């Protein structure tokens, strides 16, 4: 076994019978080489079909394709961004509320009856406690000032 100084991983590599290293790709050193290697290692699925589609722009999906997008000045801090119309904000609000309501785990009938009984018992208990305290304070004030 021979240890190579040029091996990026620091491990050992075996030589074949002819004294040459086996053909194994070394780790890319630059970021561009890593990106290229990742691009060639991707499976041929939906992303490959999209890559072959020539109707899509060459940049990333989130990139602006306008030629002056990179040269646009940074907006001033005291300038407020434009708000959407009232109708658009209302529609967005309703959409977000609807999305949150879909996440709710709704109770079944048995749970609903149980929760209702628990709440009613608690309310009756609190009304009784406040009534007893009210009568006690009324009696105490009557004895002191009456």
UniProtKB/TrEMBL annotation:
From the UniProt entry, list the residue stretches annotated as the region Disordered: 1-83
Recorded GO cellular component terms are: plasma membrane
Keyword rRNA processing among record annotations: no
Give membrane topology per the record: Single-pass membrane protein
InterPro entries, A to Z: SecE_bac (IPR005807), SecE_sf (IPR038379), Translocase_SecE/Sec61-g (IPR001901)
- Give any GO molecular function from the UniProt entry: protein transmembrane transporter activity
State the UniProt keywords alphabetically: Cell membrane, Membrane, Protein transport, Translocation, Transmembrane, Transmembrane helix, Transport
According to its UniProt record, what is one Pfam family this protein matches? SecE
Is the keyword Transport in the record? yes
Note the subunit structure.
Component of the Sec protein translocase complex. Heterotrimer consisting of SecY, SecE and SecG subunits. The heterotrimers can form oligomers, although 1 heterotrimer is thought to be able to translocate proteins. Interacts with the ribosome. Interacts with SecDF, and other proteins may be involved. Interacts with SecA.
Q: What is this protein called?
A: Protein translocase subunit SecE
* UniProt source species: Amycolatopsis rifamycinica
